[in-house]
Amino acid sequence: MRLLAQENVLTYSETRHMLSFKRNTQNREPEREMDAVVIERFGAINVMKTVRRRIPQPQNGEVLVRVKAIGVSPVDCRIRAGVGLSRHYSGFPVTPGFDVAGVVEEVARQATKFQPGDEVMGMVNFPAPAGGYAAFVACSQDELVRKPESVTFEDAAALPLSGLTAWQALFVHGRLKRAARVLIHAGAGGVGHIAVQLAKRHGATVVATASSRNHHFLQSLGADEVIDYGITAFEEAAGDVDLILDGVGGETQERSLSILRRAGVMVSLASTVNGDREAASMRIKRMLVRPDLSQLEALTALLESRELKVAVTTVPSLHDIHQAHGLCESAHVRGKVVVLTE
C-alpha cells in the first residue's frame, strides 16, 4: 500500500508542468478555419471539392487577404485537368486560383504597403500553387494593388490575369502600332473583350471573331468589325492583318497565318501549329502572362475611370466551383467567370 501511494505522488516539477499545460490550453485561441477548394488529383470537374482548412499564416513581407471574389480562368481549368501550368503542382491536395479581390485582414513583418482594412486586388502566387480558391489567401504584398472604391470586388477579381494577358499580348509581345489592323479571336472571352478595348484605345482597327449573340456587345466595346466564326470563314472576311491575338489554337491558328502580313506577328495563348516549326517560330510568339504591378496599376486606373469595362458572370459561392469551371470550359460565357465567397 505504501508503494502504491508513493507511485501516485506527483513531484513539484510535474505538478507545475500540468498546471502550465492546463493554463496554455485554456488560453489558446481555437484554430481558425475557412472554406477552400482542393483538388486531390488532376482530372475532370468533379476532382474539386470544398473543404474546411486552417487559415494560412502570412510570412515576412506577406499579407493575409479576406477574399471577397475570385476570378476563374481557362488557366485554372487546364491546371485542374493536369495540363499547362500543372507542372508546378507537385503535391496534393492543392488549392488553385490566381485572381482575387478582397480586404487585408493581417500584415506580417516587413509588410508595410497595406494596412488591415485596405481593399486590394491582384494575381497572386503565379504560377505556383496559388491558393486563391479560398476565403483567405496569404500572398506577397508586391502582388497586390489597391482596389478603387468605385470598383466592385467582382470587377476587381475579373481583371488581373485576363487584363495582364491582353496588355502583354498587344503591347509587349505584339508591339502594337497605332493604325495597325488587329484580329482578336474569341473576342467576347475573358482576355478577348479586354484586348478589344485596349487595342481600340491605342488607335488600332479591331476585327474580332465571336458568335452572333456577342456582336452588339463587341461593337459597344469598340470593335470595328465582328465576324461570326460559325457562319463566315474569318480568313476570307478579315483581310490582311498586322497582329493576331489567338487564344484558340489548332486549325484556327493555322488558318490565321494565311492572312498575316509579312511583317506581322501572331501572339498565341495556345500551342503552336504543327508543320514548319522554323516558319511558325518566326511568325508566332507563344506567351505566358507574368505578374507586373505597373501594368496592373495602369489597367486598374482605366477600370476606375471607366475607360475599360469588364464583363462578369458571377457564381454565388465556393460550393458552386463546379458550375464556375463548367461555364469557363463551355467557351460560350461572356467575359470572365467570378466566384463570390460571401
Structure description:
The protein is an alpha/beta fold and 342 residues long. It folds into two domains: 33-159 and 310-340, Medium-chain alcohol dehydrogenases, catalytic domain (Quinone Oxidoreductase, Chain A, domain 1), CATH 3.90.180; 162-286, 3-Layer(aba) Sandwich (Rossmann fold). Helix content is 32%, strand content 26%. The strands form three sheets. Strands 3, 4, 5, 6, 7, 14 and 15 form a seven-stranded mixed β-sheet that branches. A six-stranded parallel β-sheet has the order 10-9-8-11-12-13, with helices on both faces. A two-stranded antiparallel sheet has the order 1-2. Helix 5 crosses helix 6. The model is unreliable at 1-28 and 273-279 (pLDDT under 50).
How many domain regions? 2
Strand element count: 15
- In CATH, the homologous superfamily of the largest domain goes by the name Medium-chain alcohol dehydrogenases, catalytic domain
Structural category: alpha/beta
Give the C-level CATH assignment of the largest domain: Alpha Beta
Average pLDDT, all residues: 89
Helix content estimate: 25-40%
CATH architecture of the largest domain: Alpha-Beta Complex
Are there runs of 5+ residues with pLDDT below 50, and where?
1-28, 273-279
- What is the 3D form? globular
Please write the string of helix (H) and strand (E) elements: HHEEEHEEEEHHEHEHEHEHEHEHEHE
Strand content: 25-35%
The largest sheet is: 7 strands, mixed
Question: Which features would summarize this protein structure in a list?
Answer:
342 residues; alpha/beta; Quinone Oxidoreductase, Chain A, domain 1; Rossmann fold; 2 domains; 6-stranded parallel sheet; globular; disordered N terminus
